[in-house]
Structure formats: structure tokens, C-alpha cells
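Notes from the 1:1 (GR / supervisor)

We went over the backlog. Supervisor wanted to see one worked example end to end before approving the batch request, so GR pasted a single chain during the call. The sequence is below; no edits were made to it. Supervisor asked that the structure be written out right there so they could see what the output format looks like.
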Amino acid sequence: MDTLQPVQEQKANRVINILSLAIPIAVAVLLGVRQKVDLGSWTTYLPHINGVINSLTSVLLLVGLYFIRQKNVEAHKRAMLTAFSLGSVFLVSYVLYHLTNESTPFGGQGWIRPVYYFLLVSHIVLSVVVVWFVLRAVYFAISGQIGKHKQTVKWAYPIWLYVSITGVIVYLMIRPYYTH
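Structure output shown during the call:
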């Protein structure tokens, strides 16, 4: 059994690395599609749903931190896996919205404009980076490699929390400019 573990680890790393590249590339390609798909007006509500998802994810990340500091591993695991699941739902919803609707331009003027774009750009860049860290953190936790999980979480957690919170802030800043 010990000889299988390195092979399993290599397979897991390969899958994580492939997903970490494939997800952002697929999102970028799908966002670049100029011909929008008409699935109905219900898709115009997806940004608002995404704002709720990011809000819940942010709260769950903070709750997960609280639980692990209280040494409540089971509650921590539930909170973090729920946050991970919400992140997956967000990704699908985000892509679906941008496949069906044009991007909404930010209409703010003055000092708020560079603040918005700084938050947006840092959110986007770190959302690409965080995929690899989060997938590794989840894998290490699920496979019982708690030492590696803790090392990965030192990077994954603050980046993931930043991405979730800035997602909410960016949504709130652009919300007035949505037509629905």
C-alpha cells in the first residue's frame, strides 16, 4: 500500500494542476464569446445571486476559521466544504451569466473609478491564483495530510477570503449599473 501513495499523490497533483489551468482558460475563452446565447431574461438575475453566493462564501470562510480555532474540526470541515461547493456553483453561474449577457460597464466617476478597477483587477488575478491553492488545501484535508493542508492554507485562506470579499464589494459597486 505504501508504494501506491506516491502514485496517487502524483495523480492528484496532475488533476489539480490541470484543473488550475483549465478552469481560468475555459472561463477566459467563454467570456470572449461575442455571440451571446439566449436562455431567457432570468439570467439577468445571476449577478445578484452571485453576490449572495460570494457573501455566503465569505461568511463561511470566517466561520470555518472560527471553528478550527475552537478545535471543532468537524464543523470546520462542513463550513469549508460548503464554501468550496458554493465556489463551484458561483463559477457555473458566473460563466452562464457572461455567456448570455453583455458585461455591465462601471458607471462611477471620480476617485471611486480607480478604486473599483483596482479591486476588480486584483479580484480577477487572485481568483485565478487561488484555484490551485484551494484545490490543494481541499485535497490535503480530505486525504488526511493535515501538515500539508496547514502549509497550503497559510496561502489559500487569505487569498480566498480576499477574493470572496472583493467579489461582494465589486458587485455592490457595479450593482447600480445593472439594467435588471
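Supervisor's comment: Helices lie at 4-31, 46-69, 73-100, 112-142, 146-174.
Batch request approved.
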